[in-house]
Amino acid sequence: MGIKRRHWAWAAAPLTLALAATGCVSTSSAGAEPQAAPSTSAARSVARVCAKPAAGPAKAPSGAVTVDPAVVGDLAAKTKSHPPNTTFWLRPGKHRLEPDRYSQVIPKKGNSYVGAPGAVLDGRKTNQYAFGGTARHVTLRYLTVQGFVAPQNEGVVNHDSADGWVIEHTTIQHNSGAGLMAGARQRVRANCLRGNGQYGMNAYKATGHVSGLVVEGNEIVANNTDDWERRRPGCGCTAGVKFWAVNGADVRGNWVHDNRGAGLWADTNNNDFRIEDNVLEANDGAALIYETSYNAVIRKNTIRRNNWVEGRRSADGGDSFPFATVYLSEAGGEPRIRARTDKIEIYRNVLENNWSGITLWENADRFCNSPANTSSGDCTLLARHSDRCARPAIATAPLYADCRWKTQRVDIHDNRFVLDKSVVDCTVKCDRMAVLANYGTYPDWSPYQGERVAEAITRKQHNRWHDNVYLGPWKFVAHDPSRVLDFGQWQGTPYQQDAGSTFRARDGG
């Protein structure tokens, strides 16, 4: 789990506040000035939830049980003593649980928890979890949940990833671990997920997978305050939101900004995502990572000023890898896996002044049953079982194809890529668009050694850029990191990318 991208061995072979956003549709020829049609403007709403949270009811809803902040443990006790499908109304004030670290609320099926204006559930840096258990169809609205100390990779709200929860108009902030976990058919709407130690939300089930997830209209800001990637390098355990083995997700209309690390990260056997109408900005790392996963639509997002910290750190460290703001790592379209699309389609997005653009990458040494697979124990959704991906069978069809997570069938079109180096403040390596792989070397029984994967991702796996608009001094990387191309070379033989696109190499610096 997590990204491993540096195995080169190339020596062997050569919702409320409208902010402006710009969209484009390109039909012009290469080298021409962008025309009016590609630069029409559209309004993009930002879910400014944290500054202006919605207020809950000032009086208890009809039939609701009132919870008193003056009584320590009142919420957990009344939950235990009342039947399923009960609504609890939390009075204004700071509510506390019993001081034992495991004294969390255990809802019953169909329970609802509604906060009055100013209702706060505070863990006081003592309690690990706020709401846990396996009850389905629990609802939280208009609460603030803060000060809980969940361990790494565990969550504060819906700690046990129960199914069918609805979390709306709730502020989940300043907790350790993940502010929120996700179960199947969970709805996460119009919340403030702010300043949590690891994730704003971690969509993960210990058994099975999360399906039918909706993440809509949330502000997801300043998470990973504990800087886990620094504490455990390569752990792949941070993001504003991290998705693991989610089958079917709609991520729309969110404002994902100023997170330490990536904004959104889908890692390991996710499928059928729609990521649309979001504003992803000023995250230290990539705006979006889609890794060892399948079938997604990424459209109509505004993506700006991301990856400045991690991109610069990588470049300053001498790494030639084009780690971009939208990063697809061993992820592609697969018609044999049921989804609303059979490819990864990236279109009608605006990418402005990020550290690099879109990188399509495939690690030749990373496949099911390989010791170089950082998602250890996981296999592809096609092969499913690691013991099948062994010699000699892996060297022949169908396992030669099915044991790999492949970056294939990626269609990148009608996007607008803007780079002004006076804004990004870089001289080199922040201007890359790339499709590449490494030279396969490991393990010694791998059938993917040499340039096979690099040739496949670049020329054989139907990865295509077309009808985009480029403003700024963009460069292009194909096949391997040593092949840095200008726009003419990128469009020409043998790569033949970006047909119908426009390119104006202006630099505002």
Automatic annotation (TrEMBL):
InterPro entries: Beta_helix, PbH1, Pectin_lyas_fold, Pectin_lyase_fold/virulence. Pfam families: Beta_helix (PF13229). Keywords: Lipoprotein, Signal. This is Lipoprotein. Residues 1-32 form the signal peptide. Residues 158-307 form the Right handed beta helix domain.
